Amino acid sequence: MIFTETKLAGAFIIDMERLSDERGFFARAWCEDEFAAHGIHQPPRQASISSNPKRGTLRGMHYQIAPHGESKLVRCTRGAFTT
Questions:
Q1: pTM to 2 decimal places
Q2: How far is 6 from 29, CA to CA, in rounded Å?
Q3: What single DSSP character describes residue 56?
């Protein structure tokens, strides 16, 4: 996994490191040890998925404070997003 820091404190762009061969590729989407090495010590407690047909739309990225705060892991499977 490749962690790239962003301007937002505690936020990373996390790229999967693909191991490719004639069958296709394999990549880890989550590794507790690698996340912990970058200061991320919260194992996933919930996984959700959304699909947004309209360009520029994000769902589930609202601000939350304690005791209801959550860390977010966002995956872009098609298209792109910028920081």
A1: 0.62
A2: 19
A3: T
